[in-house]
Amino acid sequence: MPPAGLLARRVLRGRAEPMVRPLLPPRAWTRWVHGGREPQEEEFPYADVPRPGRKWERKPYVTPMKVLIRRAKEERRARQEAPCRVLEHPPANGLLVPHLVEVAHRVHRAREKLLRGLAILVKGEAAIPVKRCRFCSEVHIGDVGHEIRTCEGPNSASRNSLHVWRPGTVRDVLGFPYCYHLFDRVGKPRVVHKEKYTVPRLPAILELCIQAGVDVERYPTKRRTRPVYSIDGRIADFELDEEDGSPEAETSPEALSCPSPLPPTSSACTAYAGDRTEEEITVREMSYRTLESWLEMRSGAVKLMRKYGVVTCGYCPDVQVGPKGHKVRMCKASKHQQRDGQHAWQEATVDDIVPLNHVWHVCDPAGDSVPLANELKRYYGKAPAVVELCVRAGAPVPAQYRSMMRLDVVPPARDEYDLVA
């Protein structure tokens, strides 16, 4: 008996060539029309809420391990060939990246606008209620907390995994992880355990902006005008001091900090363009501008992280902005005894410095007085808490979150969920 492939060729002999569907980018909604001959792309890409990893598993690497090993070998080979060399490319040589200084200022301004907008939407006259669980980090946007059994806090088994809701704040909607401030990110890139209480901590997104060119009075930093040298892998700085012309000695942070190429932003500046004040802006317009600030901050942070290194622990949410992670022994996640409390540092993503706190979303705002049922949770969508808050206030839904929020799904009633296939 001839093989199946030969039979298929015999059957297709004398007929038109079979249609070959063109390859489309993955994770995108595709609709086939006219008998499957012409693919038609939807206007937004497909995206779903990422599943949270298990507590004992390490986070996936952003860059494959083979690529990291190859880079380490190339760097070691370069040090062996040229033990003493000047570092040419910023920011590894201590200089700023010129075209990213303006991006850092835009991210800093967007963060300030975002915090002011969230404060008005949560605490203003037309405030949108925010609920937070008493025992876990679950957040819900609405008048009544949901009844979905996802609580993993203390004694959750006795409550049948139901949440205990209380009023939330802006920090529950958007919380920035903190990191240590580096006065000299090249000369002293690590914070040791003895400096745990002496080095200040600040939001990681703010530290990223400072290292990229933003000057903040509370957190002085060192700005160089000449690149540093690498001698057997060690950083050597031969830049002269401007005051006495001698080699650079240990001075105060205030004396070494110099202004950035662009003027620093002030918290007292006007939040939004135009002659109107924040009281005259409607809630709908405020939500739209707050959502714009959120998207601008995340997109700008992605551009900065391509040049300025940010690392995160592979087992806990701790982050550190800089070429290396700190050595403070404060990790309490899985397998921390084997590491003596130190973090397992790896490359971070934008979700590590600007976390996406996903909340449940329902398309029908009229049914907000009825709590979400646990039996219908597969029909509900999800969205970041900031996006959900702005959408409830009247902002349009961003294209990248439409499929995640399941806008085309109509949840059934409680008494008919078992009748739906």
Automatic annotation (TrEMBL):
Name the segments for region: Disordered. 242-267
Question: What is a single Pfam family found in this protein's UniProt entry?
Answer: APO_RNA-bind
Per the database record, which ranges form the APO domain?
A: 132-218, 312-399
Example GO molecular function:
RNA binding
Question: Which stretches are tagged as biased composition: Low complexity?
Answer: 255-267
Q: What is this protein called?
A: Predicted protein
What is the organism field in this record?
Hordeum vulgare subsp. vulgare
| The gene coding this protein | LOC123402038
